């Protein structure tokens, strides 16, 4: 049963309207063109002025699905134009977190449109906490469906005009297998690393790791190296291959740092590299012995093998002096 105080706090928020968030830029052709390119949309109504002029719209319009794009903050979180609200429409989720409903999963996002938006128009949206359902138990856990509606408008001298809405629903829950920390008495179960699926194509790689060797597949017909392993040479289509033992010297081609969700048994933050071996192929592997702030594209790395749970040996990469 949900805490009555929580229910009362939540009910007090339902229906609340949050202030405006403004668009940085007016609706413009370059953003539309780039969006269409990225999304693979080739409707001339969005990108060819002469064509658009001859339609009922009498000029270019933005693809309706771009509605949310115009008011986005950009690369940096919460970087909204001056005049935008600093209220947090997700405050109800914080309230639930304080009562132990720590997990969030998005369940629906629905766009609806009132009219097309045109070049030169400037948008803003307001958010309404539309509803919070009764406490429900699903396979994920027990919690609440929370629905927010962002109403988008175009600023007009004679009165702003609604152009569309975005409904966004999340399930805010206490995970089914989560135990309250106070109740945990026994030693925690040690979660093991998941094992790779091994096939005839990949077995050599894992057997190499067991022996402390980083093996790369090599086409014996044309000598092309390939990774990840595959049955056929991408260059000459030969099925014949052997392996080359890599030196283990490499550079950091790119990386990500996993922060959330924290999945056992990994340590967080968890840096993962796209590693370029000096032989020329790339592989993905964990990075060790380095802090997030020190990671640099292009830095020199050296392979190091570590065995986990007495059964899985993985190649990891550690920074070395240039
Ligand atoms: Zn080949």
Q: In words, what does this structure look like?
A:
The chain has two domains: 4-27 and 62-175, Thiol Ester Dehydrase, Chain A, CATH 3.10.129.10; 203-319, OB fold (Dihydrolipoamide Acetyltransferase, E2P), CATH 2.40.50.840. It has six helices and 14 strands. The chain has helices at 4-13, 29-39, 44-47, 49-53, 91-97, 203-210, and strands at residues 17-22, 103-113, 123-132, 136-137, 141-154, 161-175, 215-219, 225-226, 241-245, 249-258, 270-277, 282-286, 300-308, 312-319. The strands form three sheets. Strands 1, 2, 3, 4, 5 and 6 form a six-stranded antiparallel sheet that branches. Strand 5 (141-154) and strand 6 (161-175) form a beta hairpin. The termini are far apart.
> Helicity level, as a percent range?
10-25%
Bound molecules: zinc ion
CATH top level of the largest domain?
A: Alpha Beta
Low-confidence parts lasting 5 or more residues at pLDDT below 50? none
Largest sheet: 6 strands, antiparallel
**Amount of beta strand:** 25-35%
SSE order: HEHHHHEEEEEHEEEEEEEE
Q: What is the H level of CATH, i.e. the homologous superfamily of the largest domain?
A: Hotdog Thioesterase
Look at the structure and give the mean pLDDT.
Answer: 92
Number of H/I helices: 6
Radius of gyration over all CA atoms, rounded: 27 Å
Shape: extended
- What structural class do you assign from the helix and strand content? alpha+beta
The second-level CATH architecture of the largest domain is Roll
């Amino acid at each position: 049963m949900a805490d009555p105080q929580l229910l009362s706090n939540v009910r007090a928020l339902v229906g609340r309207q949050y202030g405006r968030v403004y668009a940085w830029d007016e609706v413009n052709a370059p953003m539309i063109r780039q969006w269409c390119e990225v999304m693979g949309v080739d409707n001339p109504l969005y990108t060819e002025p002469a064509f658009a002029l001859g339609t009922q719209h009498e000029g270019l319009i933005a693809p309706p699905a771009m509605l949310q794009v115009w008011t986005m903050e950009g690369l940096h979180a919460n970087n909204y134009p001056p005049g935008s609200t600093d209220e947090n429409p997700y405050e109800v989720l914080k309230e639930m977190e304080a009562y132990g409903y720590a997990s969030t999963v998005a369940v629906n996002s629905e766009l609806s449109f009132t009219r097309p938006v045109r070049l030169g128009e400037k948008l803003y949206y307001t958010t309404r906490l539309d509803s919070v359902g009764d406490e429900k138990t699903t396979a994920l856990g027990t919690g609440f469906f929370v629905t927010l509606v962002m109403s988008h408008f175009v600023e007009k001298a004679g009165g702003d005009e609604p152009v569309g809405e975005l409904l966004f629903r999340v399930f805010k829950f206490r995970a089914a297998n989560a135990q309250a920390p106070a109740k945990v008495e026994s030693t925690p179960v040690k979660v093991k690393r998941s094992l790779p699926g091994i096939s005839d194509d990949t077995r050599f790689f894992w057997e190499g790791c067991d022996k402390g060797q980083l093996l790369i597949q090599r086409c014996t017909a044309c000598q092309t190296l390939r990774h990840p392993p595959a049955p056929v040479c991408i260059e000459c289509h030969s099925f014949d291959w052997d392996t080359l033992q890599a030196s283990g010297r490499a550079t950091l081609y790119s990386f990500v740092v996993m922060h959330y969700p924290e999945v056992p048994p990994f340590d967080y933050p968890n840096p993962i590299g796209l590693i370029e071996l000096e032989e020329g192929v790339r592989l993905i592997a964990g990075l060790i012995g380095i802090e997030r702030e020190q990671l640099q594209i292009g830095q020199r790395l050296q392979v190091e093998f570590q065995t986990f749970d007495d059964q899985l040996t993985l190649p990891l990469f550690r920074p070395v002096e240039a």
